[in-house]
Amino acid sequence: MSGPIDEPKWSAKDKTRADVLQLMLSLTGNPVVDQWLTLAEISQALGYPEASISARLRDFRKKKFGSYHVSRRRRVAEAAIWEYRVLEVIHAG
Questions:
Q1: Which pTM value belongs to this model?
Q2: 3 to each of 7, 48, 67, how far by Cα in Å?
């Protein structure tokens, strides 16, 4: 684990994003590794709206927020319910 998200010179908006990302990382004590969760489940656990959780999942992919790999899959094939899993990207070098 690379530890807390690096905090270069960020705007107040980026700082708030980083705080929410840290909460998401701590949801299970580790990044949401090997645990598939829906937006509703993450939202309920953290107390943020699903739209904010969805945006933060997109942020996880960005370099300044750690370049995490975010996977998604349908929970039930017939339903439009997606679940997400965040995996840390191991950088060579």
A1: 0.69
A2: 12, 23, 13
**20-42: pLDDT as tens digits:** 777 777 664 454 456 788 999 88
> Which SS3 state, helix, strand or coil, does residue 21 take?
helix
Q: Which residues contact 33 (CB under 8 A, 6 or more apart)?
A: 85, 86, 87, 88
Query: Which of 83, 30, 20, 27 is CA-nearest to residue 55?
Result: 20
What does the radius of gyration of the chain's CA atoms come to, in whole angstroms? 13
Q: How far apart are the first and last CA of the chain?
A: 15
Domains of the chain (ranges; CATH) run 13-87 (1.10.10.10)
